[in-house]
Amino acid sequence: MILKIWHTVELIVFIYLAFTGIYLFIFAFSGLFPLKRKNKTPRKKRKILVLIPGYREDAVIVDVAGEALNQDYGTENYDVVIIADGFKPETITSLKKIHVRVIEVQLKYSTKSRALNAALEQTDDSYDVAVVLD
């Protein structure tokens, strides 16, 4: 009786290990033949708006704006907007020299969400994607 139970357990373990081995072999063998993927190029490039809110960040905002402009996407479909809240006039002048759009906001209670909402009211609806860098 015990021998019969032992043979049944051995058979179950053998079936499990055989199934696992065959399963692994099938997928390992199929990995030798990579799928040929279709190269999908987009039909049109999406127009992207990059919003960078800042509150008295005069020391770093010019470098951040320059890095945000340093993209390979194309300037006709990619706009960088700096939301200037409490910036010095010379910082705003240097931002305009590097060809970013500057939206100046003066809010009674400055928060990031209020600055973003004020900036979005001043932009047009021609953008497909809006990204906030902070």
Globally, the shape reads: elongated
Number of continuous helical runs? 4
Distance between the terminal alpha carbons, to the nearest Å?
73 Å
Reported for the largest beta sheet, the result is:
4 strands, parallel
Residue windows where pLDDT falls under 50 for at least 5 positions: none
Oligomeric state of the chains present here: single chain
**What's the pLDDT, averaged over the residues?**
88
The CATH topology annotation of the domain at 48-132 reads as Rossmann fold
Instruction: Please indicate the percent range of residues in DSSP E strands (runs of 2 or more).
Output: 15-25%
Helix content: 40-55%
Class derived from helix and strand content? alpha/beta
| SSE pattern, N- to C-terminal | HEHEHEHE
Read across the widest sheet, the strand sequence of neighbours is 3-2-1-4
By DSSP, the count of extended strands is 4
